[in-house]
Amino acid sequence: MTRPAWLGQLRWRVAHWGWEAAQRAGAVTADTPAGRRFAAFGPGSRAAFPPGSVFGEGSIAIGADTLIGAFVTMSAGMVPGQDLGPLPVLRIGDRCVIGRGSHIVAHHSLVIEDDVFTGPYVYITDQNHEYADPDVPIGRQMPRNAAVRIGSGSWLGAGAVVLPGASIGRNVVIAAGSVVRGTVPDQSVAAGVPARVVRRYQPGAGWSASPVPDYLAVPDYLAVTDYLAAPYRPAVAHRASVADGVDGVDGVPQSSDPLR
User: Fold this and answer.
1) Cα separation of 208 and 218, whole Å?
2) Going from the N-terminus, what domains does the chain have, and what CATH number goes with each?
3) pLDDT confidence of 251, banded at 50, 70, 90?
4) By Cβ atoms counted within 10 A, which residue in 33, 97, 183, 223 is the most buried?
């Protein structure tokens, strides 16, 4: 017997109505039990349902009027219940938007300032695996932490990765799919793997492309082998600046050590 068309439509409507009702009811706000588990969950902020993996809320502080997309993972510490001290290790400011499916993983200090927007599936962490001992599985070696800061007004495109030790300035654009592992100056555009500055804003002149991309300063904890593996090495920029008699590229000082 053929199923009546109206019955199929009714099931469709019930399924979608139920899902929309669950999304509304499951959202986290400052007034919900889930919101009260955070160190701070500002007024007007909302975390969409369904969430990703969320734990360590007592070490996570979220400002006011911030929107956390669906399936976003926010975690503090290695495992639920880990004591990370009295102060939050993950701070997200006011009026931020964290895109669907993003992962923000904090262990030491990860600060996202006000008005930061991200695209979907962005990954930000302040901890990385150590691999100093070649005879021990990497997952069993003690990881290494380095503080991360993302300046106010910045935008991180879809799929961007921000690694430990990264310091992103104010009003910065990180291109989609980029991997940031160093310092990005204010009012600039960084792109690539690893990311490098490709545009800068100069007062009175506006936005302009760098004739030689500025290689980002990399945290000291990264191994020389990591640096040498990069497709664009700072030695190229340094040689260009020395040839021009300028100790820097596009006004940004560069190290005299070609491996730094």
Assistant:
1) 24
2) 26-231 (2.160.10.10)
3) very low
4) 183
191: pLDDT strictly greater than 60:
yes
Q: From edge to edge, which strands make up the β-sheet containing 161-162?
A: 54-55, 73-76, 103-106, 123-125, 161-162, 179-180
Tens digits of residue pLDDT in 51-104: 999 999 999 999 999 999 999 999 999 888 888 899 999 999 999 999 999 999
pLDDT band at 216 (very low <50, low <70, confident <90, very high): low
User: Which residues contact residue 255 at a Cβ distance below 8 angstroms, ignoring those fewer than 6 apart?
Assistant: 217, 234, 238
* 121-148: average pLDDT: 93
Peptide bond into 50 cis (omega under 30): yes
- Where would I find the H helices in 141-233? 224-228
| C-alpha to C-alpha distance for 50 and 38, rounded to whole angstroms | 17
* Closest of 166, 164, 168 to residue 152, by C-alpha: 168
User: Catalytic residue positions?
Assistant: 129
DSSP secondary structure, 12-38, as one string: HHHHHHHHHHHHHHH-B-TTSHHHHTS
Strand order in the sheet with 110-112: 40-41, 60-62, 90-92, 110-112, 148-150, 167-168, 183-184
| Amino acid at the residue 44 | G
123, 145, 129, 150: which is closest to 226 by C-alpha?
129
Q: Whole-angstrom Cα distance, residue 123 to residue 164?
A: 11
